[in-house]
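Q: Two folds, back to back.
A: First:
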Amino acid sequence: MFEQIFENVRGKSPLVHCITNYVTVNDCANMLLACGGSPIMADDPEDAVEITGICKGLAINIGTLNQRTIPVMLAAGKRANELRHPVVLDPVGAGASALRTDTALRLLEELKLTVIRGNISEMKTLAYGSGTTKGVDADVADRVTEDNLDGAVSFARELARRTGKRKVKQKGTKTEQGRYSSKYALTELLVCGECGTPYRRCTWTVKGEKKPVWRCINRLDFGKKYCHHSPTIEETVLQEAIMAAIMRTAKQSADVLGTLKLHIGMALDISDTEDNSLDIQIRIAEIDAEFKAMLQAIATDTVEEFDEQRATALMAEKNNLEQQLAQYDSAQQKKENTESRLNEIFTILDGLENHPMEYDDRLVRQVLECVVVEFKERIKVIFAGGLEVEQTIPV
């Protein structure tokens, strides 16, 4: 198989656009050449999308991430998606910092990725929205051994299944960080209380009648090898229990409803930060003016030599200020998206006080953080913001 793949690559010699880190850029170029491909590196905003258009594939690596290249990665990725080119992502260090984690999740959310290459901790960060990556290495706690190899394989397959089926976020939509779009909200939220593995929707035939049920993935794939007591739950029974927990919490009292809103608001965090963007823009204009004056002075021979040290300092300061401006823009967009989501959630919660509702995937996605199957007769419903409610299931 691999021989045929290499022959195919060498026969076509595809041009591959690499937005990679400064440490491995030479290795990436040499590896592509050795395989029979042709590398090209471009990460400038005015260059990258055009380069993607003439290539046959795109590789994105966030190893030396900075604010300037994030929009370049997104724009190049979207162009590659339009052209139906393969896109490879290496989420280096996802889980080690907020910037890397947020960026990796955003790339996963907005791009259709062909291959994701990463260590186990980086993959868990993509699956769960947070992680404990140690720099660019996997956390010792995530180490794959002979004892947990089958579970790790199951996890990888499930992540591949979810990312492969999810819908790419379209312009103008708002999706929560780290969530996968799915027809069934519980695919993203329902987990086993015994082994921590997600549940999967299945269809069982009982006495000739087909019924949708939810089962722990470890139990489905490996029987009782890793998970011994996780129950199978009928979908209608599970949905009724979840809605009962939501309705009971919303109706309990105005105080409880207010607390729920407070928890959700705190979790989403729309706190204001001091906006110094105008001062930054003014300072950038001053730097440009000073630099222009330096160039004019040397051109008219009014100074003996160009002050390279001063010019370097000015350009470094300008670059730093431009990165701060980009952060302000990103924070403002995040705040607007968060406020919009809060308004949607609060509207739903206010309506629950006096108007019973049937199970609704949109409501569940907005209001809940997780649903844990503790026993056959009990689940734990965790609301966005951390409020936990125990709910019995009729057996």
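A: Second:
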Amino acid sequence: MRISTRIPSSDARHRANRSAAPARDRADSSASSPATRSAGFTLLELSIVLLILAIAASFVIPRLRSADSAALTSGAARLATTARYLYEEAAFRRRPMRLNLDLDKHAYWVTVLNDDPDDPQFVPDDSLLTRPTALPASVAFVDVVLPALGVVRDGLVFAQFFPEGYADPLVVHLTNARHEFATLALEPLTGRTRVADTDRGERRDGFTLLEVLVAVAVLGLALVSLLGLHVRNLALLERDERITDATLLARALMTDAEIERFPDIGSTDGDFEDRFPGRFPGLRWEREVTAPLPVPDIREIRVRVFRGEEESGDDVTLTYYVRRRP
């Protein structure tokens, strides 16, 4: 038997609203709960982070080179490489070559003496490494110093490289948009190039007291070490001189023993005042003649030159064997 119950629509809607109300209340309470809301940074935390970033930037930023500084360095290095290449290439080709500098257009190129004996002239070199080159956009020539012309600030100049292994002395000053300067110097006899950074027109800060004290301490240690090495070197030279004198005197005594041909067995000693008056004070000698073998015709002559009564590292001993001549 089926039993059915009907509920009026108004009561059903009322009961549904009552059952859904707690669910909405739980959802609203969970959404607004402080435990589930993410917290931001405090002012103290932000201040500490900014302080750390500022300290890191103070160390990093001074070491970061700008594009203009990098262009100045690369332009000077490339010009120095070209100069070194020309020094070696002129000797290899056995032809004079020139490094031409256009101070107005801030460019340089290479020319070489042609093979035409009737019309000798310098013509552009067709090598890949010596093609015309312009300085970077932010880099320019300041001046060029040549012995024959002095200081040149505009126009065309050239430095010649000779096949005999020398070149014109050359000094080139470069600058960039930041008013930083670089100096290139060419050594005429070796072809070596030096590039240095310089700050013209700007006063450099002096050294601090701590830096001066550290430099003085390092210099003092270096001087003490050098002085110790010099004293040791003098002592070694003096010892070598003493050993050389003793060796020569011992050979002279050995020569005297050879003149005797077959000396008698025994020992003798003395000094060198009678033979070399005043030249070798303190040096003494002793000679010992023995028969080391059971052969009566052999003598062992041992000559020793020494200083003082006790043995030292400066003593010289020579041993010689003679045979009775028939």
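Q: And?
A: Residues 261 and 325 are 8 Å apart (CA to CA).
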